[in-house]
Amino acid sequence: MKVELAASAGAAPGDFWSGARGLRGNFLRLILPVFFLSCLTASVTTVNAQDAKAKCPPTARIEDVAETIHGTVVHDPYRWLEDQDSAETRAWIDAENACTQAALGKLPGQDAIAKRLGELIKVDTIRLPIERGGRYFYQKRAANQDLFVLYMRRGAKGEEEVLVDPATLSADHTTSVNFEGVSDDGKLIVYGVRKGGEDEVSMHFLETDTHKERKDVLPRARYISSPAFRKDKSGFYYSKLVEEGPRAYFHAMGTDPAQDTKIFGDGYTPDKILAVDLSEDQRYLLFTVFYGSACDRSEVYFQDLKIAGPIVPVVNTLDGCFQGAIAGDTLYLQTNWKAPKWRMVAVPLGTPSPEHWKEIIPEGESRMEDFRLAGGKIVAQYSHNAASQLKIFQADGKAVGGIELPQLGTVAGVMGRWESSEVFFSFQSFAIPATVYRYDLAAQALEVWAKPAVPVDANAFEVKQVWYESKDKTRVPMFLFYKKGLQRDSANPALMTAYGGFDVSETPLFRDDAVLWVERGGVFALPSLRGGGEFGEDWHRAGMLEKKQNVFDDFFAAAEWLIANRYTRADQLAITGRSNGGLLMGAAMTERPELFGAIMCGYPLLDMVRYQNFLVAKYWIPEYGSAEDAGQFPALFAYSPYHHVVPGTKYPAVLFLTGDSDTRVAPLHARKMTAAVQAAQGGDKPILLLYDTKLGHSEGRPVSKIIEEDTQVLGFLMWQVGVKGF
Fold it and tell me: In what side-by-side order are the strands of the sheet with 399-403?
């Protein structure tokens, strides 16, 4: 389920908005970590940071920490690298970066990669608009700009007005801005300021008529839901994560934020996510408490502000996930309770107990991903075989058609209001960049509102979906993207990515790396692994907790299918994944190193014994489990990549990617794993770490940095698997 939260909320480790255990039952896998780390301790010579600078890669000091966890001895020889600010860690990072730049900086062909990436990325780009009071608010980045600028139009076809340009906020363009909220009349906005790739933002306020800044500033924090303004703009409701857990507040404009009134949340611990929203007519305040990023379950409450009523529970005991929106006196709830592919119920707020609920959209063959109340109707987004569909229903649930999409692809967001027939959505596919469409529900008319002029000929490529069998015979779909006329002769370099977690659906997206790869004669593959949301909650649960190994097995089976069907061969197969997908990359290199030629492992989770101790990782315990739980520890330890690095193994080429400003997935995972794999490498392939000292996990990176990083990543992968012209 894609929960609408502020970008700084406790998202899944992955980049949704955006934001993904199996117990092998193999005794060898449980004892290997103890054996290999003991050997490693005996065989590696300790050097200090000064010596490390002269060696590529630098030899990391061994300081084996042994702990007995639920009767199992667990070794951690690189725990000292968890201290991000120590002089020794910083010296090691500098030495690693020097080695990486020495290796990548001399590669041929990078100028051509950077040039093509610039052509694909440096185009005028507009994101989905928000309409308030007849004004349209959106983010736009011009072809010659590094960062998105905040704009407004007075009327759909009015002149553009720049509201906030972040270019002057930092000399290196690592500080970005985004819309966090807009008042009902469109005369006041709140925008977030993000430094580097942090999840945290500070909130600032701007009057759109005068372009004057208000004195109110909410300090840097992890805000969960966007500010919801009262109609008179006297204040707004919001939620954020504090030390005790998530809490909802009311801020009166012109007052000290430190004195904001707490209105809900006492007792909820940091592993919960609390969203607060205000109904369009301003009468009802809606609170939703999510248990973990993937919403293992949720609670829903509301308050009638018109009568200053109490906070009333709608659901707080049922074993399912619920998210909703209010129109009039009805709460529309999307839920997977008794419906793995999701359904919708209508809740009368006058009598909100479950016996008064009415199912209006039953569970269907396709998975309901999300919905929007607009024009007195329900616009529902579905995933059908991992591709998006848009269906329209009357308020009572009667189906009244849908919006035809250009081809197999992905709808990324739907915007609309109950009192307006205007709907905006973004659509993209592998060779179609994100295009903003406007749909008039009353006239049933669809038009392009904004389309980036990316120089790509979609007709030159082919997109198809295939199905393959995983280890346990489960059928899994996979998208393939390549140039028309491709020869299946086992000689094509292939690039594969996946996620497999947190109920996130992997559907066709426009990716500059995929376009560049296939233009050079390669194949791009995207399997929809279990753990995702493509086929509903059963599909998700089949890849979480003790069943996480299914995700890895699905991925390995995809690679084997590509090889068996002569699309590529193992030494020409490059794989890439970030965040929860980075965990997948860690499992790939430790469980099936012979199956891949090169791996990019970005912003990863890799030490699954200690992951829950850092940053916001407690949000992910419902998805992965925790080593603190005796029943969950064996499954985590059985696949934890950091604990399954074996000396002498011939690992494929690996590029680890992370940065200091990742405040979601602790960069210590990549640091520790880099040291372990470098020490264990029994082959001749490079193991490198690309470590950014300013940026991190979240959005807001400047275009120049995106191109620089993507050039290095693609250059590394192409170098290792033999892409033509490299």
Answer: 367-374, 377-384, 387-394, 399-403
The residue among 475, 480, 520 whose CA lies nearest residue 497 is: 480
- Closest alpha carbon to 417 in 1, 129, 7, 5: 129
CA distances from 404 to 129, 391, 445, 541, 724 (A): 21, 9, 11, 31, 38
Among the listed residues 462, 466, 669, the one whose alpha carbon sits nearest the alpha carbon of residue 580: 669
How far, in Å, CA of 500 to CA of 555, rounded?
Answer: 9
Residue pLDDT, tens place only, 126-147: 999 999 999 999 999 999 999 9
Cα end-to-end distance, the chain, whole Å: 41
* Residues β-bridged to residue 602: 578, 657
Catalytic residues: 579, 697
Q: How far apart are CA 311 and CA 614, in angstroms?
A: 33
Domain boundaries, the chain: 27-117+457-461+489-501+544-721, 124-364
Q: How confident is the model at residue 701 (pLDDT cuts 50, 70, 90)?
A: confident
Could you read off the pLDDT of 327-385 as tens digits, one per residue? 999 999 999 999 999 999 999 999 999 999 999 999 999 999 999 999 999 999 999 99
Whole-angstrom Cα distance, residue 631 to residue 121? 47
CB-based contact 641:590 (threshold 8 Å): yes
Q: Distance between CA atoms of 120 and 20, rounded to whole angstroms? A: 28
Nearest CA to 509 among 176, 105, 16? 16
For 159-178, write each residue's pLDDT tens digit: 999 999 999 999 989 899 99
Rounded to an integer, what distance in angstroms lies between the CA atom of residue 4 and that of residue 288? 11
E-assigned strand segments in 170-211: 175-182, 188-195, 201-207
The CATH homologous superfamily of the domain defined by 27-117+457-461+489-501+544-721: Alpha/Beta hydrolase fold, catalytic domain (3.40.50.1820)
Instruction: Tell how strand 135-141 and strand 149-154 pair up.
Output: antiparallel
Could you please report the per-residue DSSP string of 75-86?
EETTGGGG-TTS
Coil/strand/helix, residue 339: coil
Give the chain's length: 726
Structure confidence at residue 198 (pLDDT): 83
Name the 3-class secondary structure at 687: strand
Contacts of 575 (CB under 8 A, 6+ apart): 495, 496, 497, 559, 585, 588, 596, 598, 599, 600
Question: How is residue 226 written in tokens?
Answer: 């966007």
Distance CA 566, CA 494 (A): 11
Residue-wise pLDDT for 395-443, tens only, equals 999 999 999 999 899 998 899 999 999 999 999 999 999 999 999 999 9
Cβ-Cβ contacts under 8 Å for 603 (sequence gap 6 or more): 13, 578, 579, 582, 657, 658, 659, 662, 664, 665, 667, 670, 696, 697
648: exposed, middle or buried (C-beta count within 10 Å: 0-12, 13-18, 19+)? exposed
Burial class (CB in 10 A: 0-12, 13-18, 19+), 448: exposed
CA distance 535 to 557: 19
Rg (CA), the chain: 25
What's the CA gap between 18 and 514, in Å, rounded?
19
Flag whether pLDDT at 15 surpasses 50: no
Amino acid 183 reads S
- pTM listed for this prediction: 0.89
CA distances (Å), origin 274, targets 38, 245, 330, 531: 44, 9, 21, 23
**CATH tag, 124-364:** 2.130.10.120
List Cα–Cα distances, 144 to 121, 151, 196, 702, in angstroms: 10, 16, 20, 11
Work out whether strand 494-497 and strand 135-141 pair parallel, antiparallel, or are unpaired: unpaired
Are 551 and 530 in contact, with CB atoms under 8 Å apart? yes
State yes or no: pLDDT of 5 exceeds 90.
no
